[in-house]
Design brief:
This protein has three domains: 3-58, no CATH class; 65-174 and 312-320, Rossmann fold (3-Layer(aba) Sandwich), CATH 3.40.50.2300; 176-307 and 346-364, Response regulator (Rossmann fold). It is 48% helix and 17% strand. The chain contains 14 helices and twelve strands. α6 links the parallel β1 and β2. The longest helix has 18 residues, at 176-193.
Length: 376
């Protein structure tokens, strides 16, 4: 072990970096004991060798910008799905972490266990003087309205819901129906052309979570896209009424598969992981949601309807930090890359990809208008 390394180890101890020292002692205890013996025998040399460099580093002044950004605090409150839902909560968390890394702001997260946690969790951050509090999900609408009124000097961002009567609330809304249309068209074309794992039942499905507007916008687009390219296609629709129950999602997907569904769009957050597992087991396709979920089952995820909650989260944090907070609604759609298709399965022919890309361009150009209402 070099003198330089021992010096750095001492600095870590002086600075109280318990995570580093503790982890080292547990995994390399013999080396640490040997290092301590060397320190005892040569402490005077080490102190003289370290003192000037340590002093120089510890007195390095923080720039005004770094200090300002560090003092800017952002709190994120998840809905009941939590940050490991591999869906929109996780995407919001990724945007938060990007802000911490690139902007240097201070961030914290509270994961809600039940809906009754929303108000106290939001209040917790507001009472601590956080500059921006982020609420993830439509179900937090009422909580944001209540807490934002009590703390008018705190800025709030809510994902997937419109709070328009508060000057301190920004609402990030997504055109889920647009990307739903595209994945629906891809599913419809796969059935029409009978390619990949598709046998030609001309039946596809959707497993939704809670029956709330963001979920229904995805489903509405999916219906329209599939019917636009394959008018005779049959579409099965069911809701699990939750976002955190993969077992129920799997069972519902298996039921749809038994009814002939060969492609199932999961719009159910963490519950949707069960849909993807069912697709794997029965050798059919699933379509992911919110994040690119191809990694969950590369051979069985056809594509994903991606909603860039991470981009929305990061952008609002950056704008607020720079004094450009905007209240009201901010829309994210195909035009500004707020929604889009994720990785496409290798089984999808280029001809289908080209058709879907053209549909995306037609939506951007206003040639296709997608309704956000589910057909009965």
């Amino acid at each position: 072990m070099s003198d330089k390394f021992i010096c750095l180890l001492l600095i870590q101890v002086v600075n109280g970096n318990k995570i580093f020292v503790g982890g080292y002692m547990m995994k390399r205890w013999r080396v640490v004991l040997a290092s301590l013996l060397i320190v005892v025998l040569s402490v005077s040399v080490l102190l003289s060798g370290c003192s000037s460099k340590t002093k120089q580093e510890s007195t390095q002044p923080e720039t005004a910008q770094e200090s300002k950004n560090k003092d800017f605090k952002v709190g994120l409150v998840t809905d009941v799905g939590g940050i490991n839902d591999r869906s929109f909560n996780q995407m919001a968390y990724e945007g938060l972490q990007r802000a911490a890394k690139e902007l240097g702001v201070t961030v914290n997260v509270i994961q809600s266990k039940k809906m009754e946690d929303y108000v106290p969790n939001l209040t917790n951050f507001a009472q601590q003087g956080y500059n921006l509090v982020i609420a993830v999900g439509f179900m937090m609408h009422d909580a944001v309205e209540e807490v934002s009124q009590k703390f008018p000097d705190t800025k709030f961002l809510i994902i997937d819901s419109e709070v328009t009567d508060r000057p301190n609330v920004s609402s990030a809304m997504f055109k889920e129906e647009q990307v739903g249309y595209l994945v629906g068209a891809m599913a419809g074309l796969m059935e029409k052309e009978k390619v990949g794992k598709v046998k030609g039942t001309n039946t596809i499905g959707v497993v939704g979570g809670m029956q709330i507007p963001p979920v229904d916008r995805f489903i509405a687009g999916y219906q329209q896209g599939a019917k636009a390219v394959n008018p005779d296609i049959k579409i099965l629709i069911n809701y699990t009424n939750n976002f955190d129950d993969p077992a129920t999602g799997k069972q519902m997907a298996l039921t749809q598969i038994s009814q002939g569904a060969e492609i199932i769009f999961q719009v159910a957050g963490g519950t949707g992981e069960g849909v993807i597992k069912a697709a794997q087991e029965k050798n059919v396709y699933a379509i992911g949601v919110d994040a690119d979920q191809s990694y969950l089952a590369p051979d069985h995820v056809l594509t994903s309807a991606v909603k860039r909650v991470d981009v929305a989260t990061y952008n609002v944090i950056k704008d607020t930090l720079n004094g450009n907070f905007k209240s009201g609604i901010v829309y994210f759609d195909l035009k500004n890359d707020g929604v889009g298709i994720g990785k496409v399965n290798k089984d999808v022919p280029q001809s289908i990809i080209d058709k879907v890309n053209q549909l995306a361009q037609d939506i951007k150009d206003g040639k296709i208008t997608v309704s956000d209402k589910v057909s009965k």
